[in-house]
Amino acid sequence: MAGTPIKTVPWNGHVGAVSFTFDDALANQPQNLKPMQDDLPDVHVTFFLTDMGNGLKQNAASFAALAKAGNEIGNRTKTHAHLTGVGSDSELEEEIVKFAETIESTLAEQGADVKVTSLATPFCENNDKVKGVIGKRHFINRDCGWHGRNDWDTESEWMSLQAKIWTRSGATVTEMLSALDTAAYIGNFEGANPWDVQVKDGSWLVVLNHGVTDDAGDDYAINPSDIKKIFEHAVENKLWVVRLGRSVLTIVRTLLSMPRLQTLPMMVLQ
Which helix (H) or strand (E) covers residue 241, if one does? Predict the structure, then answer.
């Protein structure tokens, strides 16, 4: 450690970063996202799987194919449970730890070598007890949030990472495009409201999605054409489209006496 000081590079050298996450092992996700990714080979996303409604069992082959194409597979718990209401440690272990192993073994049967290291809490319900069990098997957990941005010079809360929710009634396409511009630090932020979170540089945006379908009756779903528009805009903005856990997030802990480097998040490609 006596040689050249360690240098961390924000967002892997990009102007900012974005992670697109899709929840609940829905059949319309592989069906409608695969054609987009064929057109946008640099866009990889994170799928959080659950066996609620037999989602994992019924769609294992499709998600295994997406994993083999470079997408990340994460854990949404076995039954999409209200984790803060689960009474015993053994029940929490069943929902979280053992189900991560089930995801890996199930997709292995379909020819995909998957390592599950990230989780997304159902209903974004979380507490210290839940975090403790998540941390036995995962190094990062996605909850919900307001703007979903994470700054370079502030260490994120890895067991409660915030994300911007995108539903039909919750956020317009224009709002999502603006969020990607903000992550890339495109625009004039000097006149922002003082109660807004200050935008001072490029940031890492985490986006929470569910279904991918034109079914207007599904408020949790987003039209495939709108999602593709967002993907394309992320690439146009030169953002690093990073999988939430597969492109490992870690903390730089250096022995050097350089305070700013001691707790900065660093993206490390696998």
Answer: strand 240-241
Secondary structure (3-state) at 18:
strand
- Rounded CA separation 162/149 (Å): 7
Gap between the Cα atoms of 181 and 257, Å rounded? 35
Looking at the chain, the number of H-run helices and the number of E-run strands are 7, 11
Query: Does position 225 have pLDDT exceeding 90, yes or no?
Result: yes
Quick: pLDDT tens for 172-204: 999 999 999 999 999 988 876 666 678 889 999
Residue that the structure tokens 């102007």 belong to: 15
Q: How many CA atoms lie within 13 A of 125 on its CB side?
A: 10
pLDDT, tens only, 68-92:
999 999 999 999 999 999 989 999 9
pTM for this entry: 0.90
User: Taking a C-beta distance cutoff of 8 angstroms, is the pair 155, 265 a contact?
Assistant: yes
Question: Which residues are CB-neighbours of 155 under 8 A, at least 6 positions away?
Answer: 251, 263, 264, 265
